[in-house]
Amino acid sequence: MKRFIVPLLVIVAAYALLPRLFTADSTNSILLWLPLVLTVALGEFLVVVAGGIDISVGSIMGFSSMTVGIVFKANPSMPLPLAILVAVVCGLILGLINGALVARAKLPPLIVTIGTLATFRGLAFLIAKGETITGSYVPDSFTKLSNHGIPLGEVTLNWLAVTSILCTAAFLWFTTNTALGRSIFAFGGQPEGALRRGISANRIQTTVYALSGAMAGLGGAMYLSRFGQAQPGSAGSGFELTVIATVAIAGTKLTGGAGSIGKLVVAAIGVSALNVALSIQGISDDWQTLVYGSVLLVMVCADSFRRRSEVVV
Amino acid sequence: MVEEVESKGLADQTGLIASGISLSFGGQKVLDSVDIHLEPGRVHAITGENGAGKSSLAKVIAGIYRSESGSISFNRADLRLKDPRSALRQGITLIHQEPLIFPDLSIGENIFAGNLPKRGPKIDWDLVFQRSRDLLDKLGSNLDVRTSAGTLSIADQQMLEIAAAMSYEAKVWIFDETTAPLTPTEVARLFGLINELKQQGCAIGIVTHHMDEVFTISDDITVLRNGKKVVQLLTQNTTKNEVVSHMVGRDLDNQTQRTERTDQEIAFQIQNATGPGFQAVDFTIHRGEIFGVAGLVGAGRTELARAIFGITKPTSGQLKLDGQPYEVNNPGEAIKAGVVLVPEDRRGAGLCIEQSILDNTTLPGLKRFASKIGILSRNKAITTVLPKLDDLATKYQSLDQPVGQLSGGNQQKVVLTKWLLEEPKLLILDEPTRGVDIGAKADVHRQIRHLASQGVAILLISSDLPEVLSLSDRIGVMRKGEIVGTLAAAEATEALVVSLASGGQG
Q1: Same domain, residue pair B190 and B53
Q2: A12 part of a folded domain
Q3: Is B309 within 8 Å of B428 (Cβ atoms)?
Q4: What is the band of B5 on the pLDDT scale with cuts at 50, 70, 90?
Q5: In this model, does residue B259 exceed pLDDT 60?
């Protein structure tokens, strides 16, 4: 339990900031945010465990939400599973581009994904051709995924939340029970040692960036469902900060090799609650950015100090 | 003992045969058409000076490097090794000099990483832990397989790598300088294991430049020099001297050329100093004197050196350099005052491994190579650095070559050159020849003596007793942070130093 202190503290801070969060209304608001944060954070988590970073997830969300919106505009009666598949495939393709640049071209992940952060955002503008996806293009059945679901008293566990919970379960299984999932942890902790054991760096890096892209793609679909509209400039913009902060708050080793999906869930709840609390208090987005940035810096420092205390000089 | 093997045609020999292996890095030939035959049930020592190509050969066999030409076969089947994975699949494993473990994973998972057994689609964790337990039992270790591997000693980390190799049921084992980080007991245990693998019919190669090891454990010896195979010998038919002369290809200057020092001027004095890791330390070093510090690992020798160099601070006591009080807060001030430390960990603390030789050697004194307005003169740097590198017989291709490409011995020479350019008053050497081969060692020793003869005071910290005994004018023996005795060169013997260092009666 001691290890859960930091992510739990964030939840406590959010509820201290706004005791009203305990109401069913606020809980429903949190459950609107949670699926986006958690889904995209799962992919980012794997990248960080593998010793990398993916800054481009916000732009991938933007691109995928625009693509799904455009497809809906052209074909309003498209089945929902197909729309979601389009989003995931979009993200997967963009993620594979990141993966190829990191794994094959051996470029530093930070630079690669800062580059693709801009490139993918540019692509979102290109496919939008100056238009935005307004509410009239998005079918009601699609937006209902975010406010209908499994009723639990006054709280509704919406379908997006259900999806993110299923994704979490899948990631948990993948990281504990498969050789590839375990290899990600081994590679992130000691890349050269992993190579000695025949673990392919190429395969690990391609996998984690592809998965991160796919999850961000799914996050883009969730964004469209939750907001009912999307603009190429704003959809998912800045979300990379939220997600990386979540991964850091979850105590994931920022140099790679260790992290817990359980803690990631708690951190995602904390970040979502904080987000709702800040919004309800009328604190502007600018301040929220500042808060996430500061939290991230604090976590990076904590991570660094923890490592320094491990190595007795 | 082992019987003589009859000579057979190479074609119907079992075991691992590598023939005509060539390898280059950046145009420099590291291996030049090398042949080696590792036979089942025999231990084959691969020896040579640092930079001779021993480790490179091992890495080619283990699939880490891909050779430019040549072929490798195992039990008469040709192998195409494109990465460590394909070598492991063929049962070829390399135990590295420095083990690399996964600190956040459990010990069991460390052993099976990359090779986790499955039941259906899932990893069979029960089997992982059970088999790890069995493997560690076989190795005589009682580590808990479910705890994380983060805090294991080097010897234990190495054991995890050995257990991992056993999990592949490796048939060809290559040990690359694996005894370097081990204590004598651990070495004995490792040799026991190697003998056991030999009994089981594994083909074993050991890469080493320690003659004692070669003659303790091997059946065959291949000597490499400058990337070429010089000779293959049967261990029982040869002698250490013969092997060493094949390794070096020239006569070693092994005699002590001690010149009586008449200079009685005190260069450095430390009085009753206490600090992190040492207490009440007292000694003086005269100009041109080599003061050796012997002691067991952890006796406080390195800590003392770090304090003198300003990395840590003594809490009490007095230090004097050339009669002036010497008090420094950081290494920068120490260097300015004329004190220089050549650290033990070359790669980590002594060199910028990706930078060129020229950049490394000129780094501390960049100002000296600059014009008045601060522009660096490459010519000035080259003309200053070149003669110093040559003095040490450093082998390199160009001054712009990254030092990471040099062998350990040559790297150490670059570190020395760098500090010699500073013209220090007191030179502190911490394990100057650890991991350095015999030839380079002699060069480094010659240079240390040469420096002393020019009046530099030298503080020599070394665990290599013959080195301390042959180089030092006086020897201070440390135990538990204190200097427990100071011996003049004439009265110092290995036995005396050891008994002082280990707390036996002096």
Answers
A1: yes
A2: no
A3: yes
A4: very low
A5: no
